[in-house]
Give the backbone structure.
Amino acid sequence: MKVKVKAEPEEQRLTGAETLIHALKQEKVEVVFGYPGGAVLPIYDALYRNPIRHVLARHEQGAIHAAEGYARVSGKPGVVLATSGPGATNLVTGITDAMMDSLPLVIFTGQVASGVIGTDAFQEADVTGITMPITKHNYQVRDLKDLPRIVKEAFHIASNGRPGPVLVDIPKDVSATAAEVNFGGKVHLPGFQPTKNPNVLQIKKLNEAIESAKKPVILAGAGILHAKASEQLRAVAESKNIPVVHTLLGLGGFPADHPLFLGMGGMHGCYAANMALYECDLLVNIGARFDDRLTGNLKTFAPEAVVAHIDVDPAEIGKNVETHIPIVGDAKAALQKLADEQGSSSMCEEWLVHLRQYQQEYPYWHKELEDVISPQKLISEIHSLTGGDAIVTTDVGQHQMWAAQYYTFNDPHKWVTSGGLGTMGFGFPAAIGAQIAEPDKRVVSIVGDGGFQMTSEELILLRELDLPVKIVIVNNGTLGMVRQWQESFYEQRYSHSVFNLQPDFVKLADSYGVRGFKVSTIEEAKALLSEVLNDDEPALIDCRVCAAENVYPMVAPGTGLHEMIGVKP
Amino acid sequence: MKRRIVTATVLNQSGVLNRVTGLFTKRHFNIESITVGHTETEGISKMTFVVNVEDDRQIEQLLKQLNKQIDVLKVSDITNQAIVARELALIKVLATGQTRAEISGIVEPFRALIIDMSRDTLTVQVTGDAEKIEAIIELLRPYGIKELARTGITAFTRGFQKSVTDLKHYTLLK
Ligand SMILES: Cc1ncc(C[n+]2csc(CCOP(=O)(O)OP(=O)(O)O)c2C)c(N)n1
Ligand SMILES: [Mg+2]
């Protein structure tokens, strides 16, 4: 393994806390999302004396989702700092979310002093134990001398290979006491040697398969984004003339307005994309993990296809779908090599014509509503008012699916959503992190009225940090996605999915010093959004939308991609 | 269900056993036994697992998931290789005056040892592969087994064998 770490063998006498700050600066950390407490007092004290930008969230969950938004948009690891016990346990949802969606995070938690670990001391929790299954790796620092190396390794592991969260638990005595520490150590991880360069023979095999395929399709996941391989994806798709389907998390990796783009696949994907996955004779998965929300019933998934799978994580290959051409490696390297392979594009004009017919025949559709806002229309308006160029973060539920369907992206790194874990409460704090990563870009946070209430305490950050995030609450007065499933699969028994009472979101915003607006018709919404989306102040817009709308089309649970319901009005 | 013997070379970090068993729980793998111990290299331990898997895909997942662990250096499925695999069992069996000699007679051909004795029991130590251990247990059972402790299998491939696993390329990739 060749890891280039600049050697600066400087031995210094520092406390653990000072060592940590020094190490973070060495890693060029721009911002830490955190929340103080007893076990991290020494670290906060060191931060006071030797500052790094610190964003004081109002809940650790807000801090970690913000770090995820930052990581998703910037590609750099998000850094989180929290205290022991409750501080650390409040991070658990965010850590799991980052693990599921492969986001690079480095999380530092305080721990009670080494001498009392294991005694149920005040605010003690077995954080390395709790987070073992939800981190890519974790550490507890036993000896201050190890800290510089552990920090280096943590950043290295979080951002190399398949990205993911790494946690470092630091007992209070380690951060409080001083020792001679050395920052010159190198990363030495014999058990972590991710394969970057794919096997050329396998690439050749894939190229041959492409040449002989009549109905090929590329399924592109977020691996494209992590590898920054959008250009290479486009080059391969164009030179070999293969249509592209995105997963929910991959959106933006391939331009939505490209003639070879079929749309999103999966449960609420579009008909043409799902039928392409169903009917294809060659399925080239690049950086997607064949999640069940994407595949539908596996028994009828891509039944005719030769399956090729390019993934930097070998464990994803063959996990859910039998794979004939496995290719372990970085998506960018693999696509580059594939593009270099001579061999004409597959002859699949007929196939493309066939798929275009599906696209024309079965586009996304929604009801035209008169007196009340159609949520789909609302998203389309936001799309056109922002020129399709905003960074969009969403929460989880119906609004998320509508955003995925109607806010189409031509560029990567603009789509921030919680896919694998489906974490309500993610969307708004993620927007804060996204705006911090990209201060000059427009960030729109499209959230549900339910999920927004899970992390709305972070509103104060928009005022405090002057972040011009625009929050659009798609307010249907319900836990819409739950209500939809109850309507469709539980004979309309709306058990606890309709809110009896809601806060006044406008006043809520107001109390945090953020402008709040309420709109109830699409004209009102258009007029307001065209102003608000273009100014540089934070804003919250409570959009009262039709409560009865459902997300269609849909692959109902247990069915296959070819059995979509609600494909036509 | 197929029985597979898997070995893993791991860094001797705190929590590494936890990581591996946690992984088995998380991924719903069915472990029959685990043994862990130091190797010839300081700081490196060897784990031997006996697992029951439903099919090849499951064992492949297991190997790959183990390989993904940062503290795991190498993973091999050695089920189909020429291996030396041994387990140790301690068996405390009821022994009265008449049966003592009989039990000694069973113990001998198994090259097992009687390592402890009380007024009404004998403790037998036996080493061997799983079948041998099971065989002696079955023979001793009629006398009344009071206590039984098995270590689980520890194993490696025989000397001078080319080690071949069908997933070797993934191991090499690490
Ligand atoms: C933390 C969490 N709890 C519960 C759920 C289950 N869930 C999925 S969507 C949904 C409804 C979300 O309602 P809302 O935020 O109003 O969005 P809508 O579907 O109405 O657009 C719920 C409860 C979840 N995904 N996350
Ligand atoms: Mg709602």
Summary: Chain B has two domains: 2-77, 84-155. Helices of chain B lie at 16-26, 56-68, 97-107, 130-140, 168-173.
